[in-house]
Amino acid sequence: MKKKKFYLVSLGCAKNTVDSHSMAFLLDEAGYASTDRRGDADLLIVNTCGFIGPAKQESLDTLRDLARRKKKGQMLVAAGCLTERYREKVAEEVPGIDAILGTRRWMDIVGLVQELRPDQRYPQPLYHLPDDAKTVGTDEHGVLRAAVQGGSAYLKIADGCRRPCAFCAIPLIKGTTVSRPPEAIWAEARTLQDAGVQELILIAQDTTDYGHDLGMKDGLVDLLNGISQAAPEIPWVRVMYAYPGYVTDRMIEVMATNPQVLRYLDMPLQHAHPDTLKRMRRPANMDWVRGTLEKMRGAMPDLALRTTFIVGYPGETEEEFQALLDFVNETGFDHVGIFPFSFEPGTTSEPLGDPIPQDVKEERVQRLAATQERISLARNQKQVGQTQAVIIEGYNEGISVGRAYHDAPEIDGMVFIEGEAPLGEIVPVQITGAMTHDLSGRLKA
Questions:
Q1: Whether 203 contacts 223, CB under 8 Å
Q2: Looking at residue 79, what is its pLDDT?
Q3: Across residues 54-83, what is the average pLDDT?
Q4: CA 265 to chain centre
Q5: Which of 95, 106, 197, 202 suits 151 as a labelling partner, its CA being 20 to 30 A distant?
Q6: Cα–Cα distance for residue pair 112/210, rounded to 1 Å
Q7: Residue 263 belongs to what H/E stretch?
Q8: pLDDT for res 103
């Protein structure tokens, strides 16, 4: 009997990517086959993003495109964050959707598609969503909660968020933090080690909150120590999405002393002026931020720091924005993500409105980006002449492409290397050139 095929589009962040891989695994186990050709699929799935306005629009546009081009007998499923929060909007605005699956019910994908009948017209999409908006699905059906990409793997350690950030819709979409059992994560790390993974990337909405709901204190540190015991042959373990105020002395120590844990930290700060941060309902103690960064760099002079900032937040004055520029100049981050404020109905910032004109937001984005580009180029130029370990991700026309420890996949820089290097391996590369965001080099014998 011919296998039914599914075509899956994953939008948004790496956390969504993990959910998409988990759904694909369950479908494969149920006898479905994946295809990269939309026209060959019996089942079309879009794992949507609903974080900010542009992401929501991309999700809607993707769904509309697939619905418009859907062939007879094909079924379209809208899954993920957008459908979790805006299920009625999605159903109304995209005629042709056959089923809707909430982000916290990815594990129901097989049951949902088995209810669908190609010869039946659905006046309303079938829904698989939890009744309680705060419920997070924890029945994982033994699925590896990781997304392997070459020699790297994203491993989800928790879902949801309990932080009060005024601008963020994640708690409305995902609910509060639910940490996965450490034993399950350690077992998965061991599985990924056995599969040859060279880089393990720990992800959650807030990795530094890991274990709080399990009664653990400083749970991320305990998790990292357990990963080192369970999977000692994975050379790189990277931590993403740390929350200001929760990078503890124990966390700094394990980063400084455990050779597996990369000296790289992604800590989204969102702003640098205390008044802006207070309106954001974010940690506003900039003395703590400066002191912690100084402490971290004292323990790890080679530490790579990434952060993100929002500009044009309601009430942001030119003085507040200048304080952000000054802080970026003063601190010298390796990587900075910059986003104009996106108004999100239902968040606690809704009463503030969206008073700053779009052209002012964009102008501030450009000024901050220009500031960071000068810093990035100067930091990259200091790498020239060094030999760095680089994980190889691709090869094309005589050039291998990879990343050093100070570059996370998809969001940071690349290293372009003369010649062909082994895919998925970590190799020594002598850095010969620097660009604003990327480096170039040659394999070192």
A1: no
A2: 93
A3: 93
A4: 13
A5: 106
A6: 31
A7: strand 261-266
A8: 86
Closest among 79, 82, 74 to 118, alpha carbons compared: 74
Residue type at 317?
A: T
Q: Do 206 and 328 belong together in one domain?
A: yes
What does the alpha-carbon distance between residue 327 and residue 271 come to, in Å, rounded to a whole number? 9
The label of the residue with tokens 């700053």 reads 356
Residue carrying structure tokens 């968040």:
347
Which residue is listed with tokens 């170039």?
A: 440
**pLDDT tens column, 280-335:** 999 999 999 999 999 999 999 999 999 999 999 999 999 999 999 999 999 999 99
What are the percentages of helix, strand and coil residues in the chain, rounded to 5? 40, 25, 40
CB contact set of 374 (below 8 Å; sequence gap of 6+): none
C-alpha–C-alpha distance, residues 308 and 167, integer Å:
14
If you ran DSSP here, which 8-state letter would residue 71 be given? P
The answer as to whether 134 is a domain residue is: no
Tokens at 9, concatenated: 């589009």
Dihedral of alpha carbons 58, 64, 66, 68, sign: negative
| Same domain membership, residue 219 and residue 175 | yes
Q: Is the pLDDT of residue 3 over 80?
A: yes
Q: Domain with 268 in it: what CATH number? A: 3.80.30.20
Separation between Cα atoms, residue 417 and residue 440, nearest integer Å: 6
Q: pTM to 2 decimals?
A: 0.90
Token digits for 201? 């990337």
CB 403 within 8 A of CB 413: yes
For 419, which DSSP code?
A: B
Structural domain boundaries, residue 195: 146-381
At residue 85, the pLDDT reads 86
Residue 118 pLDDT > 90: no
